[in-house]
Amino acid sequence: MRADTWEAGRVIIAPPSPKILPVNVGDATEIGEQISTRPLADGIMVLVWALLALAAGRLQFGYSSDYVEYLLYYESIPYTLSFMDTRFEPGFHLLAWVYRNWLGVSLGVLISSMAAFSLAVKFLLFRKYLSHPLLAVLIYVVLFYPIHEYTQYRAAVSLSMGYWAIHLLLTRRYAWAGLLFVLAFCFHYSSILLALVGIGGLVFRDRRIVPILLGVLLVSATVLERFRFLLQDMLGALNPLSAAYLDNTTKIEGVSLLSFNNLLLIAALGCYFVAGYQSRSRYHGLFLTLTLASLLPIALLPEAPVIAQRSKEVLFLAVIFLACRSRLGWRDLPGFGFVVLLTALLGYLWVAGGIIFT
Questions:
Q1: Which pLDDT does position 24 carry in this prediction?
Q2: In 150-259, which ranges are continuous DSSP H helix?
Q3: Percentage of the residues of the chain whose pLDDT score is greater than 90
Q4: Is residue 10 helix, strand or coil?
Q5: Which domain holds residue 259?
Q6: Within a domain: residue 35?
Q7: Does 45 map to a domain?
Q8: 57-68 pLDDT per residue, tens
Q9: Looking at the domain assignment, is residue 221 inside a domain?
């Protein structure tokens, strides 16, 4: 059809067609829509999943720092099921009791089963919601596999269900999300922190409010000594067996916001703020909030380094969903670069500190 026509001696010019701008798949994709990946990438993820799950149970990378404690606990599980006199959560204790007394298998089989479930859930979340699932898998394997699936078995399973629940909250499937949060809590009590911050990040309509409030709290926590002591007392009262755990400094001597790895995380967060992640989408805003909140335990509980570090790890996993959600553009590269540097540093520290390959 011609762009111009004659009407009563006048020339009518058709308006130019609007320019179609490229769409960022990571931003345009709905929360519940699956991002397609190539079969080769899927095959690599399945292979990595199987190898890492088996490696955890077979102690392929040496003895983890918590293995002996878990072994002594597993070998001492009585035939009669009882939830008394154990510091472990009821969900894990029940599962261990079934594996020990009903199935009659070794601790390695239990560890491999838990690692397989945990990795499967996380890898599926990466595949479904992230634009770069293989990058997410690589970052996870270096950052979190040594300290979760290979060491803190309960936390690994708990966080897999917790972050699954967070994504269900984003799609408004509240009943299933609530059920998963309950199950996550039954495997590790720290998952309540993920639930509180995640739900809080979704309640506020303005995506900028929660990061600002967390920033104010982060600054305030460094000067409010009484608030830190109050929080430590509350954690001690939550579980009588956690009182000694609060004061434990044998595994982690101290934590500081000014440590190099935390400074790298702060730099990455700063880059993401400059890139506008807090207002890019609901997904970006929530996981930016979760990542920022991971620094709060370091500021609030410097006198309880183990609790502070473990609490940070609960929320720190959000950095993967934040960094790999969108297809990488020029605005995303500075923040992603700091995440890569942080991954390399912590991966080195896990090996040098004897977390893995011991």
A1: 45
A2: 153-170, 174-187, 191-203, 209-221, 225-238, 242-246
A3: 53
A4: strand
A5: 66-352
A6: no
A7: no
A8: 999 998 888 899
A9: yes
